[in-house]
Amino acid sequence: MFTDRLMMNDLEVLNLMFRRYFESGKQGYAVEIVGLNNQKSIIEVNLTFLSGKEYCCGEITCHFKPEFERIREIALCSGLVLESPLTIKFNVSVPSDAIFEIPDGYNQKNVGLFNYQETFSE
Prior knowledge:
By secondary structure, this protein is α/β, with parallel strands linked by helices.
């Protein structure tokens, strides 16, 4: 399903796009694009919340709001044509020492490492 060897230009474009998106907030994340299918309609992303950083929660659905048309527009400006419908698959890792904000102002460390997958589709 995924290409064995991705074109570096495509990979670089996607990595730059997603890193810029996730760097725009105060928290910080480690982001890496690990796959793009041959049809250029499915992107696979590894995203790691950072140790010792404060977050409202560990749910990617809170931290990423896909605007699929805008994602395609930005990619196209760099020469990458992403097809529709577009799907973005996240492999998310939250370290045991990420800090979550609790509504009463108390910060709590996570009780353990957890990993999960979340998919956003048009």
